[in-house]
Design brief:
It is a single chain. By secondary structure, the chain is α/β, with parallel strands linked by helices. The protein has 2 domains: about 1-70 and about 100-140 and about 235-350, 3-Layer(bba) Sandwich (FAD/NAD(P)-binding domain), CATH 3.50.50; about 150-235, D-Amino Acid Oxidase, subunit A, domain 2 (D-Amino Acid Oxidase, Chain A, domain 2). The chain has 11 helices and 18 strands. The strands form 3 sheets. Strands 5, 6, 10, 11, 12, 13, 14, 15 and 18 form a 9-stranded mixed β-sheet that branches. Helix 1 (about 10-25) packs parallel to helix 5 (about 105-115) and helix 3 packs across helix 8 (about 265-280). It starts with a strand and ends in a 6-residue tail after the last helix. About 45% of the residues are buried. Bound molecules: flavin-adenine dinucleotide. Flavin-adenine dinucleotide binds next to helix 1, helix 2, strand 3, strand 10 and helix 8. Flavin-adenine dinucleotide (FAD) binds near residues 48, 49, 151, 231 and 265.
Length: about 350
């Protein structure tokens, strides 16, 4: 089979790109590993916070309406064992919601259904194409910085139930996020590997007690927890996002720490910018087209990598002086509307030119 563009990897970013290209009338093929291999990759539960910019991209890909999401009206940021907190609202950023939460599997199923409806060809055999887009997820070839943290992921029930506030709490061991999802919370808790193992192996009541101790009672009482999973965290970066007749998008280009929920949002902006650059290009694999793509993505990707890398480490440790500085930073953010607006819009849109 021959195609203009072969997209390797039918994860969220590969599917979104395939749909965007389909809308342009570009002959694109999705190349996915066999069913069994793809299933073994899929996490049992992973809460994803999609930004307003990601919503716009998925709307333009024709994939938004089918999604059942929980909107985030406000985000509350605080630090354990230290003063200071910052609250950001959708109104601060001038958007209907700061983000939208759903499970990875729900998003992927909806995107794959849309791919079928749009009749994008999907196959498991190699395809000859003018451009190969790599969207296979984290690459072993990429450089690696180990955060020496693991993310513990679980769904928890609180009393009262979750509404539309998301919580990010920085603990001396790593960031702890609570994302509202259908009346419950999706927990993503980064901690040292030994502690993460302890949290995963603990029985439900001990896990809930540890969560209450780290988080406090702001979100209510923690009353039940679903199955827990843990995964190691590292920053993976490809030195070049293009090669000969090749482009890299999403986690295949950069895999980030999950703090502040930026990885997929950045990957969707990769897909959007690549689709814009390819629009009308007679040869999608032409070196000039790929250079334009690399140039367009450089600033957004570099800035987002730096922010998440900074946040992953900035709140670690128990130093009183650093705690004081962080507390002052959070307080300043909380009382200064222009700073809050800038920060919120930066996290929503990245540095990309999305409207
Ligand atoms: C705990 C946790 C929480 C997160 N929370 C958020 C969040 O709130 N917001 C956010 O924006 N991001 C979040 N992320 C990051 C987000 O999950 C990833 O950035 C996103 O899944 C990347 O999508 P992708 O399509 O690039 O890659 P993947 O999701 O990794 O998908 C890649 C696909 O390619 C397939 N594949 C692999 N190898 C091949 C091959 N050789 N040939 C063909 N196909 C192949 C795989 O089967 C898979 O389907 C989180 C990550 C973690 C770990």
């Amino acid at each position: 089979m021959r195609a203009d563009v072969a997209i390797h990897g039918a994860g969220p970013v590969g599917c979104a790109l395939a749909l965007l290209l389909r809308r342009q009338g570009r002959a694109a093929v999705l190349v996915q590993q066999r069913e069994a291999a793809a299933r073994s990759f899929r996490p049992a539960f992973r809460p994803l916070a999609l930004s307003h910019a990601s919503r716009l991209i998925l709307e333009r890909a024709g994939a938004w309406r089918a999604l059942a999401v929980t909107p985030i009206a406000a985000i509350h940021v605080s630090q354990q064992r230290g003063f200071g907190r910052a609250c950001m609202s959708a109104a601060d950023a001038g958007v209907p919601a700061l983000g939208y939460v759903l499970d990875y599997g729900t998003l992927l199923d909806a995107l794959l259904a849309r791919v079928r409806e749009a009749r994008v060809p999907v196959q498991s055999e190699p395809v000859e194409a003018l451009l190969a887009v790599h969207a296979e997820g984290t690459s072993e070839e990429a450089s690696r910085k180990d955060y020496r943290q693991q993310a513990v992921v679980a769904e928890v029930q609180t009393r009262p139930g979750a509404t539309t506030t998301a919580w990010e709490r920085f603990t001396p061991e790593g960031p702890l996020a609570l994302l509202p999802i259908a009346g419950k919370y999706g927990v993503v808790w980064s901690a040292r590997p030994e502690r993460a193992r302890e949290l995963c192996d603990a029985d439900e009541s001990r896990f809930l007690a540890a969560l209450a101790q780290a988080f406090g009672r702001r979100a209510g009482a923690f009353v039940a927890a679903g199955a827990r999973a843990r995964l190691p965290l590292s920053l993976r970066l490809r030195s070049e996002r293009t090669g000969e007749r090749a482009a890299y998008v999403g986690n295949a280009a950069q895999t980030l720490h999950p703090v502040a929920g930026q990885g997929l949002n950045l990957g969707l902006r990769d897909a959007w910018d690549l689709a814009q650059v390819l629009q009308g290009a007679p040869d999608p694999g032409d070196a000039r087209v790929l250079q334009a793509f690399a140039a367009l993505r450089r600033f957004d990707a570099t800035a987002t990598v730096r922010i998440t890398d900074f946040l992953a480490g900035a709140f670690l440790g128990e130093s009183p002086l650093r705690g004081l500085t962080r507390g002052m930073g959070l307080t300043a953010l909380d009382i200064c509307l222009p700073a809050r607006r800038f920060f919120a819009r930066r996290m929503i849109y990245g540095a990309s030119a999305l409207p």
